[in-house]
Amino acid sequence: MIDALPIRHELRGLSAYGAPQLDVAVRLNTNENPYPMPPHVAAAMAASLAEVVPTVNRYPDRDALELRASLAAYLGHGLDASRVWAANGSNEIQQELLQVFGGPGRRAMGFTPSYSMHRLLALGTATEWIAGVRDADFGLTPDSAVAQIRAHAPDVVFLCAPNNPTGTALPPAVIDAVLDVAPGIVVVDEAYAEFRRAGTPTALANLEGQPRLVVTRTMSKAFACAGVRLGYLAASAEIVDAVQLVRLPYHLSALTQTAAKVALAHVEALLETVEAIKQGRDYLVTELRRLGLPVAESDANFVLVCAGVWVLRKKRPDLDRPFRTPWVPVVPILGVVCCLGLMATLPGDTWIRLIVWLLIGFVIYFGYSRKHSRLQKELAAGGAGSPPPGKGGMRGQPPR
Ligand SMILES: Cc1ncc(COP(=O)(O)O)c(C=O)c1O
Q1: CB 232 within 8 A of CB 261
Q2: Which of 11, 20, 27, 244 is 20 to 30 Å from the Cα of 206, by its Cα?
């Protein structure tokens, strides 16, 4: 029991982040690229790693300059190595940002439901976490974001675009509005950016002239390199310099840097599968909607389906009718029969037993009828654990 150890009080009772890693044929829960690396890219990576292995008696390039230059070239938008930083996954990047800009006495804020690690990273760096909210359709409007930021004045704001777990994109106007009012830095987590639909912009386009904006990216999703562990940020050169204050020396191994550079050298081949994944996603969205399921708009490699209403209707077709039950006459009859049965075997007051049995019958009946009307109301509102269908986000009519 770790609670017996003198761990920090804000970590007590928490569980470690743990999307289950299951040995199953179709693994969907960690949103990776399901396609393996193309064989010729894997061969090139293996050859480059074989060259580097004999040199690992030496520390790697602490500043990962070559890799950062390659990442900047991939991102475009006028970026160079001085405005890009890399680490072991974008989680490490975000942790470093919180170490620099969060910490004791400071606050970080996200708009939930969103990527759960943002909160855990905040807790791990002793940063207070503020769980902001999204609209009912999982969108985030500039007005709502601004009002929530004004109310809490967070030192670090996390925006997630496309958002995990909803897949929804973020209008650039939200980023601009947030930057106008946020007193600290604004992090846009773009882990799934490569999957966005044509016409959906990236926050990289907002970077110019915004010294407090940070965009984080990863090779864990579109690049099919989750096992490499390579995440990175694009921001102002000052933010990159600030992160140097907390980065561990030689944090990025020579093997990781080599593998990532090979991946970037084969970016076209690696990203070929992205188009297939996007087509599969769009097909899934169309077909699920045809079934009547409410599905959120997705710019990611996953889709949020609110199946609550749909499943409930399938399981309980009676909910589409007013509450009627054969129990109405059965309840008192059952009460009398049970009472007579008991009377025959047990001594005592017949009337008390009769009343008790009747009461039990009516409690069951009214409990059942109340549950029926509650579920009917939820269905009418599109509920049953699902958010209501709404503008932009959830679309699809529950079947009648
Ligand atoms: C929104 C988001 N950001 C970041 C990550 C983590 O990425 P990495 O593997 O680069 O640490 C994930 C992983 O699922 C994610 O969903």
Answers
A1: no
A2: 244
